[in-house]
Amino acid sequence: MLRILIYPIHIFIHFFEGLAEYVLLMTKMFRSVKSWNLYLGFTADQMVNIGAQSIPIVMLTSLFSGMVTSVQAAYQFESGFVPTWFVGSIVGESVLLELAPMITGLVMTGKIGATITAEIGTMRVTEQIDALESLSFDPVSFLIMPRVLAAAIMFPILVIVADFCGILGGLFAAQHAMDVSAQEFIRGLRTWFRPWDAWFGLIKGIFFGIAITSIASYKGFTTEGGAEGVGKSTTSTVVISCMVIVLLDYILAEIFL
Amino acid sequence: MINVKELYKSFEKKDVLKGISFKINHGESVAIIGKSGIGKSVLLKHLIGLIQPDSGEVWVEEKLVNTLSFTQLQSVRAQCGMVFQFGALFDSMSVEENIGLALSKLSEMNKEEVTQQISKSLAEVGMENSEKLMPSSLSGGMKKRVGIARAIAIKPKYLLYDEPTTGLDPVMTDSINRLISKIHKQEDVTSIMVTHELRTVFEVAERVIMIHDGKIKFDGTPEQIKLSNDIVVQQFISGNSTLLETEA
Fold it and tell me: Contact B50/A134, CB-based, under 8 Å?
């Protein structure tokens, strides 16, 4: 009985301990930003890993999400009360405001978040991080800062790619599902387009990028217990990052919209 | 000289080190032995500030390691080469880059000198022409050799070995033991190795420190430990798990 009562308290304490550790690690990382030029090569490598190598999967997922939005809009417009060219505005606003940054964030959680945790976690359990430190390298500057910096730079670029592909997918599906011409689709797109919506998507991209890579790095950095520990940390990264992205999405919408 | 004074360390509720004190003079070859999980590696990591003690002091030369900042620790770490249990080579880097990384941070050599030093270190451990190999293509013994090459490349005054022969076959164990002895004599370094391999202790060490229950149980020469009457020491030396039960 006592155990049942203590368990939530234990979870509560564990959560705040983890949060404090994360904040401390991030403080260390932000302090090391001033030495970014020392790790420029590693940051460039990470920009390729996080950004360039993720473009195909981002293109594919955003293309289909744009297509689905178009098809679902067509389904809603069956009543005939709404002009079909409105589909361009629905796809445009949905993709720019929500789908492109959100889908990119979730896909990257699985691809980049899990990879970073597995990499850093393996380095932790095989003493590579201790070895780095014994060679006088600050592991936070060496391992975490380049990844977070690279994500902050590359995520908005991925969101732009997702924006284009999402809208392109929407256009393609609108032409087939509703017989909406490209001109009509673009008319709808332009009618309700506000530049701020596109900027907001990019801002979300920066926040999502920093959140995913910092959580993944923290989880990797605090990995314990060999291969099993790496597996647990990786799973935990994906779960926590997804939750944080959804939470951030709401908070940013409240602040900026 | 390394001077450890009243070192205490615990993890969560487990007391690992309970007041360890010893001095290691320059040029000594010391083996720190004890059962698995007794805190030998933890003790070794204290010497270069990878772990902070709960209390006590770790002095390397004139520096109190456990009070130094990260930047101040660099001068201590530049004097200490550490060989990790499984090599701890950076997976994403070639052998050359692994050693070069150490040199780029802890030496003031130019590019040409770094290349020469890498080749020299690899030749010293019998790994000539392996500069371009990746750690994933190396065997356990080769990884340890490259780990040793990385440690000696910075020309340290102290070489710290964490289980240098664990998991190796007898031939490779002998080869690594000979290598440690050779480096100890040639490079005029102080060697400190953590091990539970008695063969390594008797072949390489001039002094043995045995840790038991968080404290020093024995400190003497390999010959003295063989003659020790202490039942815990005897049990470890003989490898007889029933010795303590029989005594009780």
Answer: yes
So what's the ipTM on this one? 0.87
Torsion angle defined by CA atoms of residues A22, A27, A28 and A34, in that order, rounded to the nearest 10 degrees: 140
- Contact with chain B for residue A210, Cβ under 8 A: no
Backbone angles phi, psi at B230, to 5 degrees: -65, 130
Give the list of residues 6+ apart from residue A194 with CB closer than 8 angstroms, or none: none
Sign of the alpha-carbon dihedral angle for A81, A182, A65, A217 = negative
Over its length of 257 residues, how does chain A's per-residue pLDDT go in tens digits? 777 888 888 888 888 999 999 999 999 888 887 777 777 888 899 999 999 999 999 999 999 999 999 998 888 887 777 788 888 999 999 999 999 999 999 999 999 999 999 999 999 999 999 999 998 888 998 899 999 999 999 999 999 999 999 999 999 999 887 788 889 899 989 988 889 999 999 999 999 999 999 999 999 999 998 889 999 999 999 999 999 999 999 999 999 88
Nearest chain A residue to B89 by CA distance is A128
Residues of A in contact with B45 (CB under 8 A): 130
